[in-house]
Target: DNA-N1-methyladenine dioxygenase
Amino acid sequence: MSPPHEIDTGLPGFRYWPGALDAEAQARLLTMVLAATEQAPFYRPVTPGGRPFSVEMTNLGPLGWVSDRGSYRYQATHPVTGARWPPMPPQLIGLWAALTGWPDPPEACLVNLYRETARMGLHQDRDEADLTAPVLSISLGDAAMFRIGPAEGGRTTRLRLASGDVCALTGPARLARHGIDRILPGSSGLVPGGGRLNLTLRRATAASRQS
Ligand SMILES: O=C(O)CCC(=O)C(=O)O
Ligand SMILES: [Fe+2]
Model:
């Protein structure tokens, strides 16, 4: 992977590295993720209000983000199979360290699968114990129209995220509102069956390190 080029989008703390993963790194990552989904298949969660997500999900790593009639939360097991999530691929731990510089490794990699009509409404990521730890997001496959705006609401900006792009919510942008308006079906042939994969890496628990 060549060193990522960082672009200033005007929202402090929102960091964007277009083309951070070259075609070979994307293919390797995709192969690893698809292999892990043999063990931890995609499933369609529902919101606490009972509405099914249009996105299908699974997780990698010691903890995974889940949503059901009870709550949004992190847990160690797949809600359908009851098995532990597959391990976090070392390539992702390395990318997290290189791009965020955060001292603790990621604990959760949420894998979002967007088929043709899937989307994700504007939201904040706030189910983590330490809301100062960054969120790192990797795009694979079809491009997506990503929307982002300040935590307090107001004007949002649209950004087209393509396969291999990486972005991060850090510092003052950690609680930025964001979502996916739509994907651009057929813009990439990377994902078998079509669509987009998003990998979102996070710390879930509070850091245990001493200061
Ligand atoms: O698919 C994306 O790029 C965003 C995913 C996201 O915001 C989330 O999983 O919290
Ligand atoms: Fe999010």
Remarks:
- The first strand starts at residue 7 and ends at 8.
- Residues 23-39 form the longest helix (17 residues).
- Residues 48 and 88 are 27 Å apart (CA to CA).
